[in-house]
Design a protein that fits this description.
- It is a single chain.
- With 72 residues, the chain is α+β, with helices and mostly antiparallel strands.
- Helix content is 26%, strand content 32%.
- The chain contains two helices and four strands, in the order E-H-E-E-H-E.
- The protein has a four-stranded antiparallel sheet.
- A hairpin with a 3-residue loop joins strand 2 and strand 3.
- The longest helix has 13 residues.
- It is globular, with a radius of gyration of 12 Å.
- The two termini are 21 Å apart.
């Protein structure tokens, strides 16, 4: 059986994020990008985890400007 490792992704979010948003994504780190975007980034284990993150972003009413896969 092949080992699988989490893939790192970056989620640029339009605007600043609150502590509530930060708490909703404990597996992701928060950084600030140029142009008024806040960046959430970190490992995503699999497709189910990605769907969960995207659903939480949507439920919180956040606008994701782009989704980037980060180099290993």
């Amino acid at each position: 059986m092949a080992l699988t490792f989490p893939t790192r992704y970056q989620f640029p979010i339009d605007g600043e994020v609150s502590e509530r948003v930060r708490a909703a994504f404990p597996q992701l780190q928060v950084g600030h990008a140029v142009g008024g975007f806040t960046t959430l980034y970190g490992p995503v284990a699999d497709r189910t985890s990605m769907r969960s993150i995207m659903a939480r972003l949507d439920a919180l009413g956040l606008t994701v400007a782009e989704l980037r896969r980060l180099p290993d």
